[in-house]
């Protein structure tokens, strides 16, 4: 969202575009005089003007690989959420986190990687062992949130990308606390994932209403990988040559704790809520700027952008290398794509091969990021140089006698996804994205189609039907829109003149090049990094983005469960600060 003014710790207020200095000076002085919460440091932490993190040496710590749990055996696996401390960098004290694990001792950020096999259902029991009476990252009680009457930290886990019954989908109101209190849509802590879907990289993370941003930033996230050995391309890099990379950003205090704002942009309305959380430290698998020693071989990296709000445009510093993208959110692409850059919004997964085999031993290759924050307009304050580096790969000699396996880049991986319109009627939904600001232009929140989370359900697709969603973004920022249960195809996007639209000088009901049309171009195909089966897609500002959605599993077969029963699904913005306030809507399947 737009950042309209900055409050500087010295008490100076800089107004960039809007008036209202006096009001904000007043509220600022009130805050300084102790009318608001303060951090554990006795120091306020201002939204979008966080104190810089301590300087850390980059690329000194090795990349950790999360432990794996085989969930294909049919035996129920218990995964708890625990309060832990974990070192995020060797030069920092340990950081307090909430993290998933099978015990307090083994819980970690990321949580264990759950290894599933297609057609073998996984049974996961989620438990909440967080002892706190409230979350250690401040909750803004002025936005709609779980608000357990008896206190505690509510959690509920969503498996992002799963084709799962809704009582196992982690409904935001299906939360539960360690004290036994539950949200009004709670059904069970015992989840079943059918794993009938095609092989893909999924990830699990917290989804509690109103505090998802807090719980995910606190550490509640992990990988979930569905494999289908008989259907996957042969000779892909595997074992130590297949590496999950969970990328996040955080801002940290010198004592290692997470610097989370306690003063929002519009504190009279939302004391602590911040339109976007951007950190100046880049972490991969829970370590700041790690390095990975690689042999001269092909590696497969399953990358997830698990940041709260930061988009990533990843590139490799070695000009002779490219990303060979083989998969996306919904599984394998039809054929590999050779790319110099990967743009990944929060929630995106990208499955790539990188071939280090021709590089001399001793070469260092850096994984860099050049995405502006907020995306795409950008403000240098939120993309300090530290965020341009993500991690390093160091080419090392393999041990004597170690034979590097000969991995292959597949030529094709499956059929080309083609939008079909075989059902009798195609439902077309026009859905707007709108940001609401206070009198000074500071964001108060944003909504989907002018509805809040609490409004009655309006998206009620019929199982098996085809729908075209036209998402019209009237806000200044891009939003990664995520739809639960299904994978969709990005059809096209089309820019319009928002100034003329807002002035009432044109209409979106007429198409380009009609003289009264607001559109300034014909529909444009998505760029190569946004194709394939997706469950999360970047919806650009001042554009209409059109999605083709068939309400079936990705393989086109009937759901092997009843998608109509249970608490239902959701669709939302995957900038977690937006999702919490209030860019999330219920999604109810109908027969
Ligand atoms: Cu958003």
From TrEMBL:
CDD domains linked: CuRO_1_BOD_CotA_like (cd13844), CuRO_2_CotA_like (cd13868), CuRO_3_CotA_like (cd13891)
Domain of life: Eukaryota
InterPro entries in the record: Cu-oxidase-like_N (IPR011707), Cu-oxidase_2nd (IPR001117), Cu-oxidase_C (IPR011706), Cu-oxidase_fam (IPR045087), Cupredoxin (IPR008972)
Domain (Plastocyanin-like) ranges: 154-230, 297-360, 444-587
GO molecular function, one term: copper ion binding
Similarity comment: family membership: Belongs to the multicopper oxidase family.
The protein, known as: Plastocyanin-like domain-containing protein
Native source species: Marchantia polymorpha subsp. ruderalis
